[in-house]
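REVIEWER CHECKLIST
Item 1: Sequence provided? yes
Item 2: Single chain? yes
Item 3: Sequence as submitted:
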Amino acid sequence: MRDGARAIDFYAAAFGAKELFRLADKNGKVGHAELELGDSRFMLADEFPDFGALAPPSVGGTPVCLHVYVADVDAAFARAVAAGATELRAVADQFYGERRGMLADPFGHKWSLATAVRDVSPEEMQKIWSETTA
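Item 4: Structure as written out by the authors:
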């Protein structure tokens, strides 16, 4: 991350993440932090180019999108945008049974937030996919 401490504050405000702990140097640079989002942990650190640890802006963006299930995607998405995230795809119902939206956080990471709304079999998904991409 660029500015790991600010990222921790953002993830708490945007997603309700809880900081479990952080290791920081005397200047506040985060060497390692662990946060919890629901029942999952994620870790972050500030950039350390000497170790090859670079933030998305330093490498031209990210090809990765973190997919997170939330109880109410509309509320979670609005909260993230209010905290400073940028909407990439509006929340909408998807053919595969999710209500989903995509955003970018201020640190260059992409997030897909979703709520499952109905069960869709792989066969039904394939049928719909084939019909819409033909």
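Item 5: Key structural point noted by reviewer: The chain has a mean pLDDT of 95.
Item 6: Recommendation: ____
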